[in-house]
Model the fold of this input.
Amino acid sequence: MKDTKSKRSSLIKIIALIVVCLAVGVFINNCSKEHTEDKFEILSTTDMGGHIWDQNILTGENFPNNLLAASTAIKNSRQDYDDRTITWDSGNLWQDTLIESLGLAKVTDPKLTDIHSCAVAVDEIGYDGFSIGNHEYNYNYDVLDRNYNYFKDKTTYVCANLYDKVTGERMFKPYLTKSFKVDGDFLKVGVIGLECPNLTLWDASSEYPNLIAHSPENTTGDLAYEITKVQKEMNEVGEDCDFIIVSMYNGFFYDDDYEYNSMNDKAYKTLIDRTNQPLVYGENTEAQAYRAVTNTTGVDMFICGADKKSFYSNMTFKNADESKDVLVVNGASEAVTKSVFRAKYNKETEKYKIDLVTSENLNLNLYSPDQVLKNRIRPYVTDIDNKLKNTPGQIVGDWNNEHEYMDYYTKQTDYADFINRAQIWAGYKIANHSSRSVDDINLKLKLLNGKDTNLQFASNTIYPDMSITQVPGDKANKEIKNGEFKMKEATDMFPDNYYLCAAAMTGAEIKEMLEYNAEHKYNIKMNELNQKTIVVDGEPEAAPITYGLNFHYQMNMPVGHKAIIEGFANGKPFDMNGVYVVMVNDFIINSSATAIYDTIGWNRVIWDQELNNNESFIRSIIDLYASDMTSKYGGVYPSKDALKNNEYISKWYIEY
Done:
């Protein structure tokens, strides 16, 4: 009996202890919940560049910085804040990988038909909104429109500084607002979106001839002006927000500011000096984020992008009247930024007091892929894998050895020639299947330029005379091997999402481009063996490679006389006043990194691949070229044997 009483007493004590523990647990949980409910969070990404999958499809290498990992990080963080979260992307979400570009084609799952694979990722992650980066405008209007319609009623694109220069109307909503309950009342957050003013100088498709990335009256492209303008518009309609965010595809530094990896005295001085300089559109309008922070008031947070630098992320900087410390974040293509704020509501003033609690970059390397999203994206990957296995042609003949590719930008190599020859081949196909006459082309150029051009072409049939391309810098050691030539090889040769154009250039403009390269891109230096070598200033692909023109550089000649042109490989003489058809990709036409930018632009484009096939890029032209050469001649021969492919042989070299 004694034992039974003892056991019963022990059981009662255990039950009592459990009850106490449960009560304490409930109390702790309730306290935790109450404590959390006075907080809200802002999550952001930028420059994800179409990195949807966790592997490189071409190489099989792991790629940790992807939207699968971002989805996991975002979903995990949102669990603690219920709906008191804003999830945002500040630009360049779409373009830059095979999955998103080849994924424009239809897939087997009817639910995914014609939906961009990035759009599927965005839908699963549940972004509240986006601002726009320059690469979004690599796509034509139909692609953009399809994406935006897919997001309708789910999320919103906002951009305050994209206008139609003819109508003066904005292209998008300038801002978005979202309200949620924090500390007993509804807190209202406003997000203003901004594009980089340099968009139209970089990447805008030819389908947007009237696009400008600044208010019509703001001719310098000052982003602080655009912010203040939107704030005034919000005040005029009574859009009173408790918290204002500016999301801008703009950073503190330029792409070539490689020396800055911390906010030291030198970095601060550079930012201050640049902010004090007058803005000149197209020259110093790229990295304006610091200028925008320090020249505006009323903004609580900036989400930056473009410069892909994370070392200044989560820092605060004084605004224009130094009354506020403004938080700046930048996920820099490698992280989800997480910023937590505490908001205390004052019933008497009916206003919130908001303080920053923590801000950090969540490293995507530390997050596993979201399996739900991965399953939704998998049909795209399967579709692309099948495309890459397609074998359109053969490589035959004696091709260059690997070491010759080390200097692809200083001497003629088969790798660079292969791309250019494919572009010229495409130009002949266009001419043979086009009903356009010289008069048609001059009419188009008149419409683009607003005046008569009256270009005097050599003949009424517009065949290409030469080609210009830039070679991707990571392909310096690319070796072309004999055997099957699959779509995978074509893609690896030119992975960038650029499309082909045919442009009209005068002989004088061609000469100007070559002289510019000789003077500004190439430098003579002595190597370890005391031999003269050529180095390329900046990124090698900034020095475009030419095929179809026989010429050489004499580097010891005076400025303006370094490029010696013998004539065209197709037999045409070179005439400074003549007009020639040049095959070139849209990046070179847009890019200020190349000399051709200073001589021609979209006003000289007489045909472009994008308008004729929305889903094709230069890699598809390389693929079709190999297929055609194989069916006609048994394969693609190297440059020195180009006549076996019924092609002209072009020659160029550099003399020291």
Q: What stands out?
A: The chain is about 30% helix and 20% strand.
